[in-house]
UniProtKB/TrEMBL annotation:
Entries under PANTHER family matching the protein: UDP-GLUCOSE 4-EPIMERASE, UDP-GLUCOSE 4-EPIMERASE (EUROFUNG)
Domain of life of the organism encoding this protein: Eukaryota
Protein's recorded name: NAD-dependent epimerase/dehydratase domain-containing protein
Segments forming domain NAD-dependent epimerase/dehydratase: 50-348
Highest classification ranks of the organism: Eukaryota, Fungi, Dikarya, Ascomycota, Pezizomycotina
Matching InterPro entries: Epimerase_deHydtase, NAD(P)-bd_dom_sf
Coiled-coil zones: none
UniProt-annotated stretches for the region Disordered: 1-25
UniProt organism field: Aspergillus pseudoustus
Length: 429
């Protein structure tokens, strides 16, 4: 059923019917910031916007903040199915605090509480951001970053159609709508899960973008000192979530091949952790996430008695699974770098994939020990069996992003643990 989209912005005018969740009380937010921030001036109405779909989730909210810090006006679309309305307030506070310290004007941010799969709501939104005084009419939305996918591996195994309907069918409908409005700069939230069982080639093996391609290509392998052919396809994807990301990438690659006016970057995430150093943003989904850091948080905050370790017999140094853990703020900056590269025409071809990771792995046991050191609290653990869809090791080769996007990670595993504990100390404990 279509519904009238609800809009909210940071211009100082709002109405409670716009969103289902009430704003965070000002007194609670005043406890977080040290001084009152001046209200920012509205940005030029003719300035372009970036549309951030799913922009109140964990990665989406941090990316929204980084975009504001970089001077972009943004429009966030989120249906609040796995996020909260007050995250919008927190993104704005963090952005205003940054701009106040930098002596710059805070860009404009708007929130549309709607499902991105609601065609009427999305058409209304896109029409609202189309210029009437230009011929032909031009959208003020210059780029789109898409985060609104379901992402729980175990849930995807139980409910595959749910994932294909939202992650694949929803993407097709969105791309068709954007095409109608001539919005063709698109940053796609993909995943290292597209590499499937290639992740387990060994703890010293890193995954390169050419390990999963959508058309045959050649590349130079510096380790072997030779040019190799990358074969189209993927190897041993272990769950419907990963397949939905692979299918989505393939669809986007086909769209770009058929219409070279598109520019699409698919960013393959590894394991985002931590939170913004301000302590204003963190990972706080409505539904309990099964990945390591949220599970550890439930133990640290007393909501769970122990942390389950899924497999202690992997082919790794300590038997626990190895992952490439990337600070979420570094990941968010990667989206800004990708957006800038796309808009500046610095991308090879019209469709390009990029790994966003640190290039090094940490075991689950190592992460737990680092969290214990930072928090000065013990985290009881219990070894349990491996989960369906898991792999033993998954580490990125991130050289392409460094060379072509001018991006690299800056924060360590310990930094992520410190920032997480800061957020929990301010918000939860």
């Amino acid at each position: 059923m279509s519904s009238e989209p609800a809009f909210l912005d940071n211009s100082g005018t709002s109405s409670p019917q716009f969103c289902s969740d009430p704003p965070t009380p000002a007194t609670e937010l005043d406890d977080i910031i040290e001084h009152e921030l001046p209200a920012s001036e509205d940005s030029d109405d003719n300035k372009e916007y970036i549309l951030v779909i799913g922009g109140l989730g964990f990665i989406g909210s941090h990316t929204s903040l980084e975009l504001l810090k970089s001077g972009y006006n943004i429009v966030i679309v989120d249906n609040l199915s796995n996020s909260f309305r007050d995250v919008f307030d927190r993104v704005l506070l963090a952005a205003k605090l940054y701009c106040s310290r930098a002596g710059t004007r805070c860009p404009k941010a708007e929130l549309c509480c709607a499902d991105y799969r609601d065609p009427e709501a999305m058409k209304t939104l896109l029409t609202k951001h189309t210029t009437d005084n230009a011929t032909p009419r031009r959208s003020k939305i210059s780029g789109v970053i898409h985060f609104a996918a379901y992402k729980e591996v175990a849930d995807s195994i139980k409910h595959p159609l749910k994932y294909y309907q939202n992650n694949v069918q929803g993407l097709i409908e969105l791309i068709a709508l954007l095409d109608e409005h001539n919005i063709k700069s698109f940053i796609f939230s993909s995943s290292a899960s597209v590499y499937g069982t290639l992740s387990s080639r060994g703890i010293y093996s890193r995954l390169r973008e050419e390990d999963c391609v959508h058309e045959q290509e050649s590349y130079f392998d510096p380790a072997a000192g030779v040019h190799l052919d990358a074969q189209q396809g993927c190897t041993g994807i272990t769950n419907p979530y990963g397949r939905s990301k692979f299918f989505a990438e393939a669809i986007l690659a086909d769209v770009c091949k058929s219409d070279p006016s598109w520019t699409v970057l698919a960013l393959r995430y590894f394991n985002p952790i931590g939170c913004d150093p301000s302590g204003l943003l963190g990972e706080d989904p409505r539904e309990a996430a099964s990945n390591l850091f949220p599970a550890a948080v439930r133990v640290l905050t007393g909501r769970a008695p122990e942390l389950s370790i899924y497999g202690t017999d992997w082919d790794t140094t300590d038997g626990t699974a190895v992952r490439d853990f990337i600070h979420v703020s570094d990941l968010a900056r990667g989206h800004g770098a990708a957006l800038a590269a796309a808009q500046d025409g610095r991308i090879r071809g019209t469709f390009r994939t990029f790994n966003l990771g640190t290039g090094s792995g940490h075991s689950v046991d190592e992460v737990v020990r680092t969290l214990e050191e930072v928090t000065q609290r013990g985290i009881p653990t219990r070894a349990v069996g491996r989960r369906d869809g898991d792999v033993g090791s998954c580490v990125a080769m991130a050289d392409r992003a460094v060379v072509e996007l001018g991006w690299k990670t800056e924060r360590s595993l310990r930094d992520a643990c410190v920032d997480l504990w800061n957020y929990l100390s301010l918000e939860r404990l």
